[in-house]
Every structure is written in C-alpha cells, then in structure tokens.
Amino acid sequence: MTTFQSLGLNDNLIKAISELGFETPTQIQQKAIPILLNGTKDFIGLAQTGTGKTAAFGLPLLQLIDTSKKIPQALVICPTRELCIQIVNEILLFKKHQKGIGITAVYGGASIGLQIRDLKKGTHIVVATPGRLIDLIERNAITLEEIEYVVLDEADEMLNMGFQDDIEFILKNTPNRQSTWLFSATMPSEIRRVSKKYMKEPVEVTVGKVNTGNKNIDHQYFVVPAQHRYEALKRLIDFNPGIYGLIFTRTKMDAQQIAEKLTREGYDIDALHGDLSQPQRDKVMGQFRDKALQLLIATDVAARGIDVQGITHVINYELPDDMEVYTHRSGRTGRAGQAGICMSIVHSRELGRLKQMERMVQATFHRSEVPDGKDVCRKQFIYFMDKLLETDISQGAYANYLPILEEKFAHISKETVLQKVAAAEFDRFLKYYENAGDLNIRDEKRGQRNSDFNRNKSHEYIGKGRDRNKIFNDGNNGFTRLFVNLGTKDGFYKASFLQYILDMSDLRKDVLGKIDMKEMNSWIEIDKKAAHQMIRAIDGKNFKGRRIRMNDANSR
Ligand code: ADP
Ligand code: MG
User: Fold this and answer.
1) CATH architecture of 5-206
2) What is the residue with the minimal CA distance to atom 10 of ligand 1?
3) Does the pTM of the predicted model rise above 0.70?
4) Substitution candidate for ligand 1 out of 9, 51, 76, 153 with most atoms within 8 A of CB
5) In the sheet that 550-552 helps form, which strands lie side by side, from edge to edge?
C-alpha cells in the first residue's frame, strides 16, 4: 500500500496530514506528488471533483518553496472566491508544522486595499481568482518576477466561465515561470490549446474516467424563423415550469428589451448588461443566486465570471458570433455532476455554424421542436397540480382560518373546487395558447415526418449523418424499437438516460435512433443488430430496487 511517506514528503507535512486524519493518499495524490516533487516542469492532472487535488499540488508546493526569500514564488489560480478561500484554508492546515511560509488569498468582491496590504507584508504562495489578480498586476501591487510555479486549478471551469484571455495574460506576465501545473476534472479542447501554447511537454496523469467535454449537458436546438424568436423563447420557458435559467443575447439592447417585455408579461426575470452600475449588478446577481429570480438574461460580457450553482437551462436566444463563446455559455449548466440543458434558438441559415459548434463541443446536438400550445398548457397544468399536491400543510399558521374556510366551502363539492382552482390559474394561459401556431421551420422531409407523428413533439434524433426519414419509417430498414420501463420519473434526463443505456450495454451512440422518453416508460430506436445486446445487458437488471423490463416493442 502506498503511504504519504513513500511519496517523498517531509516529516512536517506528514505530521500535519496524519493529524488531519488522511490515512492513504488518493490516486491522483499518489501519481502527482512524486512527479511534482521531482521538479517536473509542466504537469496536467485530470481527476474528478472530490479526489483530493488540492493536496496533490498544495503539499509539493509547501515543500518546494524557498523560505529564505520572502517573495511570491507560487501562484494558484482558481475560478471563484469560494474556492480561493477553501484552497487557502486547506493549505494552512497542511503547513501547520512547516514554519515560515506565507500564503495570501486575493479575490474579487473584497477590499483590494486590504489585499494589497497583505501582499506588502510579504508572502510565498498567492491564491487568486483571475480578475482580481489582473487588477493587482495592473496596479503593480504584486511582484511576479520570482514566480516559479503556476497552478491552474479547475482549469475547465475557468475556461467555461470565460477566463481564457485572463489566464493567458497571467501566464504571459510570469516571465520566470519554471513550472505550470494544470488540474481539471474534464479535458475540453480549449485546455489542450492552452497547454500546447504555454506548456512544454507536460506530463499528463489521468485518474478514472475523464470526459472530453461535459457529458451532463444535453444540447438542443430549435429552428424557427427569425421573427418568431421571442415567441419561441416564451414557449420554451413555459414548457419548463421549474426552470432556473440563464438566457444569452448578443446585444445589451436585446437583453434589456426582452427582460422588460417578459417582466410585463408576468415572468420572473431581470437583465444583466454592461450599462448597470456595480451595485445594480450585485443586486440582480444576488437575487438570481438566491433564486428570487427564476430567469436571468445577459450579454456574454456581463455574464463573464458568473458562477451560480444549479442552473437547469442555458438558452441561447441567438447563437453567439464567436464559436468558443458557445462553450462558455453552455458550461454554466450541468455543473458538479448535475444534468443540464443548453437550448439554442436558431434560424435555418445558422445550421452550418451550429454543426461547427457541435464539432467543437464534441457532443451531439439534438434538433428538437418548439412545443405547440397544447403541450405547453398540459405541462403547466400538471406542474401546478403537482405543486398543489406537494404543498406542505403540516404546520399551518393558517389554522385559525380553517373554520371560516370550511364554512365557505361547505356546500361546494371537491370537483367544483378543483375546477375553480384550475380556471383561476389557467384560463388566461389557456386562452393565450388556444390558437397558438406552429413556430418551427420544417423542410420538406421534416414536414412529411411530422404529419405522420404529429401528436408527439418530444422526439429527438440522435446519431449524426444518417438519413433520419429512413430511421423513422422503420419496418425493414434495420431499425427496431425497444420498450423499457424507465422514464423521467426515475430521475433521467435524455442525456443521462442515453449515457446509462450505453454504459450498461457497452454500445456506441451511433447504433441508436430516436429516443422517446415519457414519465414511466421510454422507447429507444436501435439498430436491429445491436438490439439483442442491449436487451441482454439491461432487461431483468435492478434499478433502485426495481426490476427493469426491456423488450422489442415491435415484436410484442
Ligand atoms: P478536488 O480538488 O479534487 O475536488 P479536494 O482537494 O477539495 O478535491 O478534496 C476533497 C476532500 O477530500 C477535502 O475535504 C480533503 O480534505 C479530503 N482529502 C483529500 N485528500 C485526502 C486523503 N488522502 N484522505 C482523506 N481525505 C482527503
Ligand atoms: Mg479542487
């Protein structure tokens, strides 16, 4: 068994680690620590969240620092203020018995004056968020001449949040940097680019499964005529009643106008754009973070650096001009292992650009349809009723009013009450959508397909470059449909469901056709040749204590 001693750490560090209760090094620590202690120049460490990456770079740094000169020698860059504080606290624990090492945190949203004073006292390790660090560099408040080690922690998150230029600026401004260590949970292509440009033959260590991009994100697009963009946006929001979403526009004016329009129509939304003062901006951000706002609409510049947990949907009101911006935008959802959806409203002329983005993100984008009015109404209706049923009545401050309530409703049946509730909540909504038209652009083939399957708008098409009509008409062309008793009720999203069935059966995505998910069941179109393998791998298996049933729907 590998121990911390065997990795080459000194006694002071070993003592501190054992006092913390760390018994054995984690895999990334086992692999990274000896390499980094050896004075390896450049290093890339890929491992999932929670695998102890802080110690993997923090311990070697503490051992490599030269305490005889009190000047910054190591720079740790991380995406958020919270993370910055967390890293400093952890390193402080590690250096408990290692005297004479200074560590300083610098991050935005706190007094820069105090941080400048801290830096002036002299320090060895600076842990920083990119924006604040650049501010300090430009004020000449930090000495970077002696920086030997630069650590980029959560590099993928930093790139998602739009910090690419900032990171490059920082790397360019550390002229005597000897070693660059990059840690990340995923390996998107931009990280490759940064590492090619700023690192020399990095040693790369991967622990566990690492994705090329974020597989938790389901990328969807909706093809509508430009004049229907706004209406399509509204429908997408209405079709997802529990949405906690971030909407992107290209211009300030769009962000502002759409926010105003939606607010007038009763939506819980505000805009973030460059014309806001800092206090205004903080106020909007605070409200969104506290979920007092359900939707935030922003330009790319204004949204830069926003880190909010739990965003369910990112909506591109328009595609960005710059392809890389798509990754920054979509990366705001699907964080920390949660599923997320990135929706783009596009015009048919933009399909080519969308294809390029698809290649860059290395994920399949699913063409979906803007739901029709009836679907939206049904969805809202069910959502409201579910909420009504879930309402907690166990601790009623309203108890005093119950007798009055009972008296008032004494002569009305439960059915009538329910109808009245429904009418009060939905009449306006139903009227609005009653005559709502179809917003989708359909080409010839799609039109035909749609007339066949008009009732069901939740289909999605998976598998690039195949003739979709062929799959759809099915019968003799090599595809069949599998039934499975798993659905959205089991907590699956399309993307996570897809990943689940593929992982279980060890098949590749391109054997699949359309996936149709319902609450309780799903239907999977699959190459006939692969169907048996999938059934064998999944049918009869256990899912959260329930037996999975999977069979060929066409031969039932
Ligand atoms: P990551 O940066 O990979 O997401 P962290 O460095 O934040 O992970 O570590 C996650 C948690 O695991 C922290 O609470 C840390 O103190 C703890 N930890 C790290 N290494 C070990 C270890 N070898 N044994 C036990 N706990 C550890
Ligand atoms: Mg970490």
Assistant:
1) 3-Layer(aba) Sandwich (3.40)
2) 50
3) no
4) 51
5) 512-517, 522-527, 479-484, 550-552
